[in-house]
Amino acid sequence: MKTKIAISSWGNVGKAIAGIHRQEEKLDTNHDMELVGIIRRYAQTQNEENIPVVGDVSELAAKPDIILCAAPSHCVIEDVEKYLRLGISTVDCFDDHKEINKQRERLNLFINDTLKIKAVSIIGSGWDPGFNSIQRSLAGLVAAGSEVITSFGPGRSMGHTTTVKSLHPDIKEAVSLTLPGAKPGLQRREVYIELNEALKNKNVQEKINNDILTHPYFRNDDSHVFFVESITPHDTRMHGGIITCQADKVDVTIKLHGDNPLMTASAMYASARAAKRIMDKGKYGCFTLAEIEPLDFIKGGTVTERLARIKY
Fold first, then answer.
1. Which of 152, 178, 220, 243 is most exposed, with minimal Cβ within 10 Å?
2. Which parts of the chain sit beneath pLDDT 50?
């Protein structure tokens, strides 16, 4: 039986998830997941390539087993809690590293103690946090006693960009870029902002600049704000990072670079498969990707089939 999934929020990540699903269906007629709907605040169309588009999950003809919550970090946990209250499992792309452990513990209590439901919530599913988190947990396997360092960029941070856009209603367009910092493990941020004509004055610029530099998302990094006529020369969907780990006679380097929304969507899609398998094992609560058995992410009906896919 196929796992029924739905997508909540129709931004870059939500659209990328739908694209991955369409591709998977074309490649495999026995695909293990069924996309039953797209949930977006303003359901302006009746369907998206024959997929129902609704304003609320209650409007879907089929109840999803898992909802992939693709909203930005500052509001995605609200969506997660809403769907968990309905007894529906979730996968999200929450990306605030400093808050993940706290949110994980809170959602665990929410599922197991407050709601007492048989549901799974996978938090922080993306390329980082997510895929890279798993790599950091494994690097010490071959380099005992070493420090694992992650250097981010260059690329566009979706979470930071969305945060900037939400700070002032009349910011016309913005992009937040992450670049390697002065030494490995540090990063700097460059924020490029287009303002509406009426707001192109020093007072407004100074306020926005201060709001960004004092925001928890930016204040601990070497951050710089630039007001430009157009963000186009600076804009990109690409992002990535390098994980390094060095020990005596061992040097580990893992590089990841690609389309930011696509990498996040791919991780979320595989995590939906994992969420169903966790529930099938009778386990419930909130999980990070590093806690999940790797084979749970892989398509295949049996362990043997999944091992064959990764060419074990």
1. 220
2. none
Q: Tell the CATH superfamily of the 140-260 domain.
A: Dihydrodipicolinate Reductase; domain 2 (3.30.360.10)
Of 101, 102, 38, 98, the closest CA to residue 71 belongs to 38
Please tell me whether residue 278 adopts helix, strand or coil conformation: helix
Residue 134 neighbours by CB under 8 Å, 6+ apart = 289, 290, 294
CA distances from 168 to 16, 84, 231 (A): 27, 31, 17
CB 174 within 8 A of CB 195: no
Residue 216 backbone dihedrals phi, psi, to 5 degrees = -55, -30
Cβ–Cβ under 8 Å, residues 155 and 189: no
- How many Å apart are CA 24 and CA 103, to the nearest integer? 31
Q: Nearest Cα to 152, choosing from 126, 173, 171, 174? A: 126
Does domain 3-129+261-309 fall under CATH 3.40.50.720? My reply is yes
Q: Go through 112-128 and write b for each residue having 16 or more CB atoms within 10 A of its CB, e for each that does not.
A: eeebebebbbbbbbbbb
DSSP annotation string for 140-206: TTTSTTPPEEEEE-SEE-HHHHHHHHHH-TTEEEEEEEEEE-SSTT-EEEEEEEEE-GGG-SHHHHH
Domain extents for the chain? 3-129+261-309, 140-260
pLDDT of residue 59: 95
